[in-house]
UniProtKB/TrEMBL annotation:
AMP binds at residues 39, 44, 65-67, 96-99, 103, 171, 182. One of its GO terms (molecular function) is nucleoside triphosphate adenylate kinase activity. It is found in: Mitochondrion matrix. It comes from Candida tenuis (strain ATCC 10573 / BCRC 21748 / CBS 615 / JCM 9827 / NBRC 10315 / NRRL Y-1498 / VKM Y-70). This is GTP:AMP phosphotransferase, mitochondrial. It catalyses: a ribonucleoside 5'-triphosphate + AMP = a ribonucleoside 5'-diphosphate + ADP. GO terms for biological process: ADP biosynthetic process; AMP metabolic process; GTP metabolic process; ITP metabolic process. Residues 38-67 are annotated as: NMPbind. The gene is ADK2. Monomer. Involved in maintaining the homeostasis of cellular nucleotides by catalyzing the interconversion of nucleoside phosphates. Has GTP:AMP phosphotransferase and ITP:AMP phosphotransferase activities. Keywords: GTP-binding, Kinase, Mitochondrion, Nucleotide-binding, Transferase. PROSITE patterns: ADENYLATE_KINASE. Consists of three domains, a large central CORE domain and two small peripheral domains, NMPbind and LID, which undergo movements during catalysis. The LID domain closes over the site of phosphoryl transfer upon GTP binding. Assembling and dissambling the active center during each catalytic cycle provides an effective means to prevent GTP hydrolysis.
Amino acid sequence: MSSIVSPLRLLLLGAPGSGKGTQTSKLLKRFPSINSLSSGDVLRSQIALNSPIGQEASGYIKMGRLVPDSTMVQLITSQLQQKNWLHSDATWLLDGFPRTAPQAQALNVILSESNANINMVVELDVDQSVILERIEARWVHLPSGRVYSLDYNPPKVPFKDDITGESLSKRDDDTAEVFQKRLDQYNSEIEPLKRFYEAQGTLHKISGNTSDIIFPKLETLILENFGK
Ligand code: AMP
């Protein structure tokens, strides 16, 4: 089966609930050379640790608002350093960061210095009416970030993680009211972010209302550009 042969630094963009987490899991299975970092997962683990950043972030997250750019840039940059991802041979995937144009600009400066720029950005384009229906069915394994849907991708044992057997949870910010705020926030931030990556020539868009429709298109796009 074909694989990735040149360094891929991928950013997945998409509304909350568009399936970034699901596509990430599928990509990690299909391409073992990819590692991923989800800003939402990093924040949720900071909250679980009750760290100063976790305490700051939890208020914003509960309200469906974005955590301030400066906090996010600091947090994710230190993760990139710890993971040794700041070099030109690195292959990785970011999910959920950058989420605003100022975050993208700040990250771009850091990555450019290391010759490790993002070289593919993919917007997952899913109807927002479909997303709202789908979010009701979403359950997560918080420690790993694995996402399940009671409709499309149910766990093997009800409400238990397939790998660890631990209990699944509902995210606090997946209630209808907070979720609508998160969608509104996404819609107001996404255009400048897309313009930033369009100007860099890295932006692609994949449309589809289920992960089974989106994934093969994503796989093909990656192999066309970075595979053999
Ligand atoms: P997610 O799991 O990506 O949906 O993120 C959950 C929540 O974490 C978001 O609703 C935001 O409150 C916060 N968050 C995650 N990533 C970022 C980011 N790049 N910038 C600001 N806030 C973020």
